[in-house]
Amino acid sequence: MSAWGGMQASQATVGQRQDLRELMHLHRQASARAMRRLSRRAAGHCIHVPRRAMSHYLHLHPHLPPIDASVEASA
After folding, report:
1. Could you tell me the superkingdom of the organism this chain comes from (predicted)?
2. Exposed (0-12), middle (13-18) or buried (19+): which is 20, by Cβ within 10 Å?
3. How many CB atoms are located within 10 Å of the residue 41 CB?
4. Which of 31, 32, 48, 71 is least crowded, fewest Cβ atoms below 10 Å from its Cβ?
5. What is residue 4's DSSP assignment?
6. Could you give the CA distance from residue 50 to residue 57 in angstroms, rounded to a whole number?
């Protein structure tokens, strides 16, 4: 069964089309609101690294050691 409740789009009245348009608009608004909420929540966990704290950041997050040929061969 379709979103029209079994009717084809050509059978729907102008009022029904308008109702569906309004419902879709509300759905898009709610989806956008939910996405903003999710992105705000995720943004709270981001690490902001000011330029002057770079050495401290690198101390806490050291670079990975270089991969030598023996490691590449075993992979």
Report:
1. Bacteria
2. middle
3. 9
4. 48
5. T
6. 9
